Fold this sequence. Notes:
Layout: H1 2-7, H2 21-34, E1 41-44, H3 47-55, H4 69-76, E2 86-89, H5 95-108
Parallel strand pairs: 1-2
Amino acid sequence: GWGEHLKLGTNLIIDHFLQERDWCDEVVGIIRESGARLFSVGVLCSLQELERRESSRGDGGVEGRPLGLARRSDEICHSHGLDYDVTVWTDQQSVAESVESIVMALRAARCLPGEVTG
């Protein structure tokens, strides 16, 4: 799996909804075991906006997601004590602003070349 790629030095973006504590611990453990550097991005949104988005899906569901999943996800997804390197708020920042925040944090952490501005 991707743990082997990390051991080989491959840079990966792992985009996953870390809803369950066991899965979160497993992902972080595999990354640490590989010796790879972890740069974590917290993608957050207010519960009010999550529920608005959920209810605007017509029948309230996409891909079999039941109503109420937004609230449940909000309660548990960021409750695992991860210390994010950068956090973006999708209800407060545009996509471009979010990307800029991530790029600036990557540069500040010396994960990307280039000057840190701003």
